[in-house]
From TrEMBL:
Presence of keyword Transferase: yes
InterPro entries per the UniProt record, alphabetical: WecG_TagA_CpsF
A GO term for molecular function: hexosyltransferase activity
Keyword Glycosyltransferase: yes
Taxonomic superkingdom: Bacteria
Protein name: Glycosyl transferase
Species classification: Bacteria, Pseudomonadati, Bacteroidota, Chitinophagia, Chitinophagales
């Protein structure tokens, strides 16, 4: 792991370490690393990721090796504030992506994951609203394990167009595993943004602000995709609450 992370403030949530930065500090840090062409990867921790890491120690190790782990979910930010007795801002992947697009200087982006339709919609939006942002390429990998040769070719294709940041939209936990495996071979900062690309492209709606502030963004998404997200949100969220009680309230 890049030893940069050990110099940053962290808090422990179950078995993953989350950086305790302000929103602006996290943006500044990533942009600094992008400018330096540092090989790094950033995870955005939500309830789903926390529970997956609790159940899978190897996955927890992957998260803890990241250069930054930011509190994506509102519940994660609230628990962090409670544990540290200090206010912690939520740093969601969706908001983070919008901040990247709003940078005043040129940024070279590469997209790994998602679908051609989503990426085309995202390209059109960026071209119209953020012309100084340059999307230098994209890869939509197949829904299967890649061969070693395919992975090497993808890495070579990414490096060939010299991006500052690679937006990794493979979903949790696949994208974190991919970033950990390939960060040493890609000359850019890797951001695991999950579904943020779909929202930013306009192909998926985001919860209204009052639901975000009330920690109900998960409910908005559940209503949109009940079959796919029922287990993740209702079962996983319940288990997360159980873990909080077990680890912190019953001590």
């Amino acid at each position: 792991m890049d030893n940069t992370r050990i110099l940053l403030s962290q808090s422990q949530l179950m078995n993953i370490s989350i950086n305790t930065l302000s929103y602006q500090q996290s943006i500044d840090r990533v942009m600094e690393w992008a400018k330096e062409k540092r090989k790094a990867y950033i995870c955005f921790a939500n309830v789903h990721m926390s529970v997956e890491a609790y159940r899978n120690q190897r996955y927890a190790q992957i998260i803890n090796k990241a250069n930054l782990v930011l509190p994506d979910g509102k519940p994660i930010a609230i628990v962090n504030s409670w544990l540290n007795k200090k206010s912690q801002e939520r740093i969601s992947g969706m908001d983070f992506l919008e901040s990247l697009l709003s940078q005043s200087h040129p940024v070279r982006l590469f997209i790994y994951g998602s679908t051609e339709e989503v990426i085309e919609a995202f390209r059109n939006r960026v071209k119209n609203q953020h012309p100084h942002i340059n999307i230098v390429g994209h890869i939509c990998p197949p829904f299967r394990a890649l061969t070693a040769e395919e992975s090497e070719q993808d890495n070579a294709n990414i490096n060939a167009v010299n991006p500052d940041i690679v937006l990794v939209a493979l979903g949790c936990p696949k994208q974190e595993k991919w970033m950990a495996k390939h960060t040493k071979d890609i000359n850019a900062v890797l951001l695991g943004i999950g579904a943020a690309l779909e929202v930013s492209s306009g192909r998926r709606k985001r919860a209204p602000l009052w639901m975000q502030q009330a920690s109900l963004e998960w409910l908005f998404r559940l209503v949109q995709e009940p079959r796919r997200l029922f287990k993740r949100y209702l079962v996983t969220n319940t288990f997360f609450m159980y873990l909080l009680v077990k680890h912190y309230l019953l001590k």
